[in-house]
Specification:
Number of domains: 1
Protein name: DUF370 domain-containing protein
Distance between the termini: 14 Å
Structural class: alpha+beta
Order of helices and strands: EEEHHEEEH
Helix content: 25-40%
Strand content: 25-35%
Shape: elongated
Number of strands: 6
Number of helices: 3
């Protein structure tokens, strides 16, 4: 199963480690340092303000979609699979 995260990018749901609100994550200095350390792995897909961080083992995606929107997209894919 895949999730559409933005700009025609899909990632497998099984690869997702964490989905968190961007603003909550970057409040903590340790988290900002973590993003800075792995900045080469960051794929910023946000066209507007960054709202969500999606972490996988391979990349860190930044999306302008909300957590709720991403959850709804994952559920849509699941529903289509079950048709």
């Amino acid at each position: 199963m895949y999730i559409y995260i933005e700009n025609n990018n899909f990632i497998p749901l099984k690869d997702i480690i964490l989905i968190i609100e961007h603003s909550d994550f970057v409040k903590d200095k340790k988290n900002r340092d973590y993003l800075n350390k792995y900045r080469k792995k960051i794929i910023d897909l946000s066209r507007k303000e960054p709202r969500t961080i999606i972490m996988t083992n391979e990349f860190i995606y930044i999306s302008s979609y909300t957590n709720r929107a991403l959850k709804m997209r994952a559920e849509e894919m699941e529903n289509l699979k079950n048709l």
